[in-house]
Design goal:
This protein is α+β, with helices and mostly antiparallel strands. It is built from 7 helices and 6 strands, in the order αββαββααααββα.
Length: 209
């Protein structure tokens, strides 16, 4: 950050490295705690943008869509809102997997409208988003809901954890003199994604790479 802050026009950084069970292996909340103790990884709320589309496409998968489902990528309108693809480029007849890999806004909004923004909001909650989501806002399909980095990372950890929700934690146990004073317990939360949904979203995530 120090070397590139002028080039990037960024003066701070946030990072969360999480194991698939929710263990926070590393966290960065800024560049210098002495100068600024605000932890951007947990207290800063930002629009996740296209990182939220994973939730949108998972909503589709949970409701019968597959990576090969077809969509027409074209200019669309939702009421008075006219979402556009990046660079205003459209591909016509595409698969869901292609749309995900290319981060096509048009298709993401179509999926959200097809299955309902309420369903998208519910899926986000199941996967670990704890921030408030406006269930009636069509723009959530493009990641306009403000979240923190820790909860967004939890969403992807849940996917890697075979669909079992994770609760982020930093302390596994505390011992003193051979005695265990504290032992973290597993969340005990029920699975929110089945094998088909996990396989489908992983296929699409691989397509991005």
């Amino acid at each position: 950050v120090e070397e590139n802050k002028e080039k990037l026009n960024k003066s701070q950084v946030a990072m969360v490295v999480m194991a698939k069970d929710g263990a926070v292996m590393a966290m960065i909340g800024g560049t210098n705690y002495g100068k600024n103790s605000f932890n951007r990884a947990v207290h800063a709320y930002r629009q996740p943008g296209s990182a939220f589309k994973t939730i949108v496409f998972l909503t589709g998968l949970k409701n019968g869509m597959t990576p090969e489902s077809r969509f027409i990528d074209e200019p669309i309108a939702v009421g008075n809102w006219y979402p556009q693809n990046y660079g205003k480029k459209y591909y016509g007849d595409v698969s869901a997997k292609f749309a995900f890999a290319q981060s096509l806004n048009s298709v993401a909004v179509q999926i959200s409208e097809m299955f309902g923004t309420k369903e998208v909001a519910r899926m986000a909650k199941r996967l670990g988003i704890t921030s408030e989501i406006d269930q009636h806002d069509p723009t959530i399909a493009l990641g306009t809901t403000q979240v923190n980095l820790l909860e967004l990372t939890s969403v992807y950890a849940t996917i890697i954890n075979d669909g079992y929700p994770v609760i982020p934690y930093a302390i596994k146990d505390i011992k003193q003199g051979g005695r265990t004073l504290y032992q973290r317990k597993t969340s005990g939360l029920s699975r929110v994604l089945n094998d088909k949904e996990i396989t489908g979203i992983k296929e699409m995530l691989y397509a991005v790479v």
